[in-house]
Every structure is written in C-alpha cells, then in structure tokens.
Amino acid sequence: MQITDKQKEEQLIPILRQAFRPLFLLGAGFSAIAMLLWGLALGGKVDLPVYGNIMFWHSHEMMFGFVIAIVLGFLLTAVQNWTGLRAPHGNTLLILTVLWAAARLGLLFGSELPWWLVAAVDISLLPVAAFLFGRMVLKVNQTRNLFFVPILLLLTVCNLLMHYGLHFGQYHIQILGAYNAVFLVTLLMAIIGGRVLPMFTANGTMTPKVQPIVWLDRIALGSLWLIFAVHFLNLHTILPSQVMVFLFTVSAIATAIRVARWKIWMTWRVPLLWSLHLAYWFIPVGLALFALRYAGFELTQSLAMHALTAGAMGNMILSMIARVSLGHSGRPLQPKLIMTGAFLLVLIAALTRVFLMWLAPELTSQWLMFSTLAWALAYGIYVVVYFKVLTTPRADGNPG
C-alpha cells in the first residue's frame, strides 16, 4: 500500500520521515551516555546537577527516558503498517522528539529548576504520543491495537507517581511508580514478543511458524496483567507471601513454556533471532526471582527488577531496534558483524548485573562498573553503526 507521497517525502529530512529514526537514535545514544554518567556518579567521579537525586535520576531515566523513547519509536512506526494511514512525521514528529529531549535535559540539569516545570514537560510526552497513536487506530476502527493507548496512559500515571513521590518525600509512592512501569513494559514486551517472535523465527530459520496455544497465552499474559494490577493497587503489601509466590511462579512457568515453544535452539546462526529469544527468556527468569524472593530467599527486589530491565528490556530493545531499523529503511535483515558483539555485550551486562552481583555481592562495585561499561559500549556500537541508516533515505528508493 502506497501511504506516502514520494515528492512530498523527499522534501523532509530523512530523520523526520518515521518515528523510529529520531527516537531510536536518540534513545540508544542517551542510554549509553546516561549509563556512563551513572557509573561515573557511583564512582564519585562526577557530581551531576540532576533533578531530585542521582538514584531517582537513574531509575527514572532508564525507564521514562530510554525505554519509552524506543517504545514510542516502535509504536508510532508500526501503527502506519497496522492502519494504512500516514504515521506522525515532519513537524509533528519534530515536536514530539523535542519534547522528549527537553524532558531529558530538564532531569539531567534540573536541580535548580522548578520541580513542577520539569515534571510537567516530562509527564506530557506519553499523553501526546497516546493521542497521536489512538486517533490513527480509531480512524480505521482497529480495536485490536487500541489497548496500547491505556497502556501508555497507565505509564503516564506511573511517571506521575514517581514525580509526586519525589517532591513530597513519599519514597514508597516513588518506588510504586517505578516498579509498576517495569511490570507494565514487561507486559508490553510479552505481548509484542508473542506477536513477532514466532514469525521472525519461522522466516529466519525457514521453518513452519509455531502456532499459539490460546489457553497458554491467556495464562501467561493474564498473570502479567494480574501482577501489574496487584502492585499498582499496592495489594502486594497486604497479601500473604504465599499468594505472591504462587502468582509469580505461575507467570514464570507459563511464560517459560511459551518462549520454549519458539525453539531457541534453531536460531543460533542468526544473531537477530537468538538475541531476541535470550531477551525474552529474561522475563520468566525475572518472574522466578520474584517468586524466590517472596518465598524467603536472600535476594533483593532490585536484583529481580534488573532481570526484567537490564536483562529483558536491555537485550530485547537492542535486538529489536537493530532489526526494525534495517527493515523500515529498506535494507536486508543482515546486520553488520560488529552488532553480534553488541548483542553479546548487552547480554554480558545483564548477566553481570543480575547473577554475578547475586553470587558475589562483595564485588558489587566492580560488577556495577563492568556492567555499566558493557551496556554503554553495546548501545554506543548501535549508534555508530546505524547513524547513517537512520539519517539517510531508504536504501530501496521508496518513501518513508
């Protein structure tokens, strides 16, 4: 379907033709820089004039700066394929990108700025994106994808809770917002991964597509919805620990069976596939770690959370943006060899942050520095390799 006018498209600079272009490039670059700054701050090498405090800045910006940039870049690009309508581009995309960048600058250098100004700019991004996405879906009455709108609005609430908790000294509310954002994005990864991974695997390995088992998908996704709801309503503080162990165990098992059916062992020759599969495996791992924690094992909530963030999100995002950037720029799905190194680096960063810190906590500072550098290098490689891809016209000559 020809959605765009080639003559009008050529009048736009390439980076403003599709949402994935500026948001993937800036999001990935920001994550590398932010992780390096975080490492330097932990080591006492720099004193950043951040909004709030350095712990808030790190937890907030890796979710609402980095992850949300990629989520919006993906959704506001995919919605064009889903609806057959022209997605945000040109000045609209520029405004959205500037809004994202202004929020990042405000949180990094906002120690002397009015808190309400920084918060207002930051919180406004997701509702604007939800409006842009929702009006396209509603125009074609595509109810199947409309659920992304409430997810974006729920993420807005999580962001609001973080700012509210910080300003009013309610740490438990701040953490409530942060952790619920993680559970919500984990649910989003499970939904999108379930849609694309079987298809990607079938196409990449030239094998039949694994068909979904409806009841299994309902248990896997339903349990993730329930985990989010329980935490969003703060019920996990009053429910018996046995209930939480059961909930996380069921979710971990269902999610593990689901991803195991997609046959990771067939993907080892294709970096764009095994990197996605390994990323998805971090979801049941993270859920299992939560189950163990509620069962009384000695591991911190931060450790379990980082299995979902550094593990699932960090690996899945790098793999997905490497693939989407090629596909939507009219290039073959054959990343440069160095990207395999980047996939391995972000995997090493996650394994270090989760398992080595658990097994050898006396070396926590060293593990954190190593993980930080591996992550920054991985995403730095993406920025360097894909800069031309994201800032030049499609290789196949088509508009977009």
Automatic annotation (TrEMBL):
It holds the Pfam family NnrS. The chain crosses the membrane at residues 20-42, 62-79, 91-109, 115-134, 146-165, 171-192, 213-233, 239-260, 272-292, 304-326, 338-360, 366-387. It comes from the Bacteria. Keywords: Membrane, Transmembrane, Transmembrane helix. InterPro entries: NnrS. Signal peptide: none annotated. This is NnrS family protein.
